[in-house]
Structures are given as C-alpha cells and as structure tokens.
C-alpha cells in the first residue's frame, strides 16, 4: 500500500534543524546544478537520509505539475512507490529511474537521478536528486548528481576538519590561559612565537617586547637554546636566573623541543616556574609547616605563663628570637607558635637541627649549592633551608652546635638578608624570621670561644627562656591528663585513671628529659594499663621509688633517686644553700625539700 506522506510543519522544522550543516554546505551546489538544468522542466532536491525533502530549487512548471515536490514530502518507496530517491534510501548507491519505471502514474512523465551523500564515517546522511521531464533527461544527469554529491561530501569533511582544528586551538588556548606556569613557544629558528599570560606576569614584560626575539637571547642562555634547537634535547627542571627588569629572579626551567616527522626540530616550548612558588609547594608537601599555636602549650605555672606572655608580645615583629631551655621543654613548640602568630604565618616554617647534620654538610644544607660546587653536587644545584624558608620562619635548633666557620656565613646572611649558594656568586634576597634555640648556655659558649659573640648578639635580640618541667610542678598533672587522653585515643583504649601513688611519683620526679620524657612515660603506662587504673608499677622504674614505694621495690633505690639528689645539691649550691629559694627553684614546698634532704642525707653546711 502506498501511503502519501508529508511531515507536519513541526517535524519539518525539526528535520531542517537536525540537518542544518548539510543544508548549508549543499545549498551552493543545488544552485549550481539548477543553473545547469534551469528552463528544461527540472527540479533539484536535497533530502535527508529518510528521503524527506529538505530543500529544493525547480522550474515553476514542474513544481505546479507535481505537488509532491515540496519541502517535507517523503519520497521513500513506502510513500511514492518505486522512484530514484526511495531506491537510494534503500540501496545507498546512485540510481536513475526512468519515466514508466516509476510506480506512480503521476511520475511517469519524469526521470529521477539520485545519489547518496555520505558523512565522515561513511554513513548516509542525505540524498541529492535531479528530477524532470524524461524527454530532456539522459544518463549524464546521474553523473552530474554523483559529482555534486561527492563535492558536498568533501566540503563537509573539510568543514569538520576545520572545526576540529578550531576546537583544538581553543582547547590549547584555554590550557595556556589557565596554566599556573609561564609558557613560551618558539619556532624552528628559535624565534619566540607566543607567551601565555603567566609568562608576561612573572617576567614583568608587556605584550610587544618579546616579538622577534630569539629564545636564547631572551633567556640569556644560548647553551640551553642550543641544547633544545640543535640537539633536540628535553630539559627538565633546571634552575636559571633571569633579568626581570626589577632585578634578577630565579626560575625552574623545563624545555621541550617539538620534532617533526623528518626528525627535525620544528619549534618547542619552554615552561618557567617561579622558584618561590616551587619552594612553597615543596614545603607544603614535605610538611614544612608549623602546627602548634600558643593555645596548644599546656601549663598554668607562673614561669611558663610568663614565657608565653613574652612570646605573644614579640610574635608580630620580625626580630630574631633566641629560645633557651633544656631539651624537651617545648622550644620547638614555642617556635611554631611564634611563627603562627607572626606576620609570615602563611609562609613556610623550616626547622633545622644544627647538631644532627654532619659538619661538612651543614653549610650546603643551610645555604644550598650551585651545580658543580663539589663532587656529587646535584645537576642544576639545590636550594638551602634559607631559600626554602623565604617569606617564612627558619628555626635553627641546637644553634650552639654550629661549627664556627658556618657561624661566619650565618652572620653574613642575617646582616645582609641575602644568601649566596656554595659555589655560586649570585645573591638571593631572603625575607626571613629567624628563631634560634639551644639547651646550652650560649653565653658560656661565647666565653669559651665556641660561639661567635657577634652572632650571639644578632640572634639574641629577644630572649625567651622556656622553663624546665621540674620548675613547673603544677603543670605535671595537667600534662599527664593530656597525654593519658591523647594516647588512649591513639591506641583506642578506654580512658584510664591515675592512682594517688602514681600521681605522687610523677609529681616528685625531676624529669631531666622534661615534657618529652613525660610523654614517653605516659605512653608506656597507657599501653601497659590497657584502660585499667594506672598504678606506680606502670611507670618507668626510675619513678617507682618516688611514690610510696611498694615493699619489693624498696631495695631498688633507683638511679633516678641519685639523680634527684644531685639536682637538689646543685640547686642548693646555686641558691647558696637558701632553702626557701632552692625550694621555689625546684618548684616544691619547703617541707618537701626538708624531707628530701633527710631522705638523701644531705647536710646543710654551717655558715
Ligand atoms: N607545654 C607543652 N604542652 C604540650 N606539649 C608539650 C609542651 N612542651 C613540650 N611538649 C611536647 O614535648 C615534646 C618535646 O617538645 P619540643 O620538641 O618542642 O622540645 P625542645 O625543647 O625543642 O626539645 P629539643 O631541645 O630536644 O629539641 C613535643 O612532643 C612537644 O609537643
């Protein structure tokens, strides 16, 4: 059964919209074809892949005579019976249907020549057809239609390749615009062709000043450009120093030559990263950050609170700070808290323990080195802690252990606020807050000739002393509570309590290792007690004699007892055997001190 069919206005609109690219490209070809057949009773038709007419150009005579030549008319076999467009829809190849070969009597006066139009992937996307008075038609008409269909296909392919190029270009442009690194591209001769906005910004140049420049001249490094252009070598993360108008700046440089299919260098790209940003990133990754604030420092004792007050008062200046205190008293904690309350709190906090680094490495650790500075020096050199700490804080722990020759270099850096890497000659400006710490008596080290006096005064602009735990007796149980909570959480154990004897022992102990030692003792006790009450047996042996010792431990008068005795004698000597002063120095009551004098058989000399 033949079903005459015509698409609704709405459907026509949808089909035209869906095929707008095809219509746009095909239209000039329809016009050209029509010019060739005009006046001889012909119509030129563009149909979609379902043989629905999308566009047509025809002589008025044929359009009047055949009402099926209209936009929206379906010419499939099911609608019009045998005809060229309907057969092309099925066969997907060029075809001609002559006069009475048509099924419909209405079409017996015409000859149709149709050809498929294929898309990028070979699929049929439309049909081109020329139909008209069979008297005027001949075999060449089909050839003409096929040629026009192929021309349409070629143009469609070209347009989509162009669109792909534009899309790729836009993508590359979007990437260049959004990159956080500076990018410079150059051609096969080494001439700069493009810079991205970050490159303009970090190099402090305007849009015109680079034009026509050779990349080697621009980078002031003909060696690097020769490596890329002549040798086709890729360069990864090499440090270079560039003139940026307002002085020299250091960059991390990577270069990638582009090689064509003849294995020739046809251009390349250079990526520049500001060293200070690289350092910021490195610090973030390696954890050069300060975690503690003043609120994290536990303790209510007057001596600790006084140190905290001084530290808070000076935190917002950039002056050097010198922290003095025994090992484990919390000097690094103070340094971190100072950094976090300072104007450079957003910058890095870089800590270096001068006692832990071999003497011959300390200078390169602190100040960095240039490539070739010594055997084994890394290619491209390496920045030192001072460079890494730029715009932040450097914490020089155990500064008293720094070799004298390094002290000279340190003094120079502090005075000039510039670092020169080992083996280098360029000065690198640094803005840094210096916090130094030691558990030695630095003044005494100066007198002994182990520490430079001028450096001592440089570092000692503000002096904060962090009191030992034995002078902060009231803080001991606060810290114990804190560490019980911390380690119970960490070990996922129920919170345990502390019995009286254990508390007494903890309070009476002299804590030569200060808070660090206390933290270790509580970690051990929490682990052994496993959520039960912490008793004296859970504490380290050195403490067990300090509570009311259990009978079995009586003969075990620990070496800690001897240590405490020694400490008391030392403090008494310092206090010229003044009991009140000595007791306050030790942070214990006078009565307790008398008890201990008796216990250790310490006799007060007659004066
Ligand atoms: N008041 C405090 N409150 C809480 N924790 C503290 C306190 N003081 C020290 N600590 C903790 O004790 C440990 C040792 O502290 P820190 O490393 O700051 O001491 P330090 O004086 O720098 O030691 P060293 O001289 O041996 O380097 C750290 O785990 C720190 O968090």
TrEMBL record:
Keyword Transcription tagged: yes
Listed InterPro entries: AAA+_ATPase, AAA_lid_NorR, GAF, GAF-like_dom_sf, Homeodomain-like_sf, HTH_Fis, P-loop_NTPase, PAS-like_dom_sf
Domain Sigma-54 factor interaction: 297-527
SUPFAM superfamilies: GAF domain-like, Homeodomain-like, P-loop containing nucleoside triphosphate hydrolases, PYP-like sensor domain (PAS domain)
Keywords: ATP-binding, DNA-binding, Nucleotide-binding, Transcription, Transcription regulation
GO biological process, one term: regulation of DNA-templated transcription
Alphabetized GO MF terms: ATP binding; sequence-specific DNA binding
Alphabetical list of PANTHER family matching this protein: C4-DICARBOXYLATE TRANSPORT TRANSCRIPTIONAL REGULATORY PROTEIN DCTD, TRANSCRIPTIONAL REGULATORY PROTEIN
The protein, known as: Response regulator of zinc sigma-54-dependent two-component system
Species of provenance: Desulfosporosinus metallidurans
């Amino acid at each position: 059964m033949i079903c005459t069919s015509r698409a609704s206005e709405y459907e026509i609109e949808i089909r035209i919209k869906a095929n707008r690219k095809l219509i746009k490209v095909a239209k000039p070809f329809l016009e050209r074809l029509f010019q060739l057949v005009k006046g001889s009773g012909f119509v030129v038709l563009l149909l979609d892949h379902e043989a629905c007419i999308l566009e047509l150009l025809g002589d008025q005579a044929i359009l009047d005579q055949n009402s099926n030549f209209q936009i929206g008319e379906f010419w499939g076999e099911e609608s019009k019976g045998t005809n060229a467009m309907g057969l092309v829809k099925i066969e997907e190849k060029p075809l001609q249907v002559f006069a009475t070969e048509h099924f419909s009597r209405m079409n017996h006066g015409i000859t149709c020549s149709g050809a498929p139009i294929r898309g990028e992937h070979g699929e049929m996307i439309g049909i081109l057809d020329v139909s008209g008075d069979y008297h005027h038609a001949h075999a060449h008409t089909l050839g003409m239609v096929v040629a026009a269909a192929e021309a349409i296909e070629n143009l469609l392919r070209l347009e989509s390749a162009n669109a792909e190029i534009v899309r790729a270009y836009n993508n590359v442009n979007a990437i260049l615009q959004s990159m956080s690194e500076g990018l410079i591209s150059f051609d096969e001769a080494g001439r700069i062709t493009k810079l991205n906005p970050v490159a303009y910004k970090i190099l402090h140049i305007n849009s015109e000043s680079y034009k026509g420049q050779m990349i080697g001249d621009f980078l002031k490094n003909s060696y690097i450009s020769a490596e890329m252009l002549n040798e086709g070598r890729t360069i990864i993360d090499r440090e270079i120093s560039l003139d940026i108008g307002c002085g020299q700046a250091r960059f991390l440089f990577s270069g990638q030559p582009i090689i064509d299919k003849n294995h020739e260098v046809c251009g390349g790209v250079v990526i520049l990263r500001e060293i200070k940003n690289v350092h910021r990133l490195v610090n973030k990754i390696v954890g050069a950050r300060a975690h503690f604030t003043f609120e994290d420092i536990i303790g209510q004792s007057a001596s600790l609170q006084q140190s905290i007050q001084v530290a808070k008062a000076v935190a917002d200046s950039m002056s050097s700070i010198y922290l003095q205190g025994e090992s484990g008293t919390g000097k690094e904690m103070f340094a971190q808290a100072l950094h976090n309350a300072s104007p450079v709190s957003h910058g890095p906090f870089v800590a270096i323990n001068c006692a832990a680094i071999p003497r011959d490495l300390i200078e390169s650790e602190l100040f960095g080195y240039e490539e070739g500075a010594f055997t084994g020096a890394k290619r491209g050199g390496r920045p030192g802690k001072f460079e890494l700490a730029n715009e932040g804080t450097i914490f020089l722990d155990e500064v008293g252990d720094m070799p004298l020759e390094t002290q000279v270099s340190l003094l120079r850096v502090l005075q000039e606020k510039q670092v020169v890497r080992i083996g280098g000659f360029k000065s690198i400006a640094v803005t840094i807050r210096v916090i130094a710490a030691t558990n030695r008596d630095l003044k005494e080290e100066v007198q002994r000739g182990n520490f430079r006096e001028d450096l001592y005064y440089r570092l000692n602009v503000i002096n904060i002393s962090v009191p030992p735990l034995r002078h902060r007796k009231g803080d001991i149980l606060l810290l114990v509570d804190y560490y019980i909570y911390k380690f119970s959480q960490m070990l996922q154990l129920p919170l345990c309590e502390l019995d009286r004897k254990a508390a007494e022992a903890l309070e009476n102990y002299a804590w030569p290792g200060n808070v660090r030692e206390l933290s270790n003792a509580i970690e051990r006790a929490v682990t052994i007690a496993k959520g039960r009450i912490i008793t004296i047996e859970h504490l380290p042996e050195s403490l067990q004699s300090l509570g009311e010792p259990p009978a079995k431990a009586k003969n075990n008068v620990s070496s800690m007892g001897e240590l405490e005795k020694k400490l008391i004698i030392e403090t008494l000597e310092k206090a010229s055997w003044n009991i009140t002063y000595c007791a306050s120095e030790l942070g214990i009551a006078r009565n307790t001190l008398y008890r201990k004098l008796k216990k250790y058989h310490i006799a007060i000399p007659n004066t």
